[in-house]
Amino acid sequence: MDIINQRAERYGDPRPNHDRIAGLWSAYLDTTLTAHDVAAMMVLLKIARAKLDPFHDDNITDAIGYAEIMRRVR
Are 14 and 7 a contacting pair, CB within 8 Å? Predict the structure, then answer.
């Protein structure tokens, strides 16, 4: 089972959630963000965490998952 399907079992389709996050972040930042922007920034967050602990595979797994969300919501 891939990471997207694993997370979908708990959180549902990633598109509506990333749209919701984009709306909240857009309001907070007073700029327009998209679901794609959210997924891209989450990849960057996971890369930042991986820099602190390059041997914690969860960061890599999640970054791959967010990259797949980027592909799906573009």
Answer: yes
DSSP-derived 3-state class of residue 54: coil
Into how many domains does the chain fold? 1
> Each residue's pLDDT tens digit in the chain (74 positions)?
477 777 778 888 889 999 999 999 999 999 999 999 999 999 999 999 999 999 999 999 999 999 999 999 99
> Which token pair is 7?
């997370």
- Give yes or no for a contact between 66 and 42, defined as CB atoms under 8 angstroms apart: yes
CB atoms under 10 Å from CB of 39, counted, come to: 25
Expressed as residue numbers, the domain containing 67 is 3-73
pTM, to two decimals: 0.86
Question: How many CB atoms are located within 10 Å of the residue 13 CB?
Answer: 10
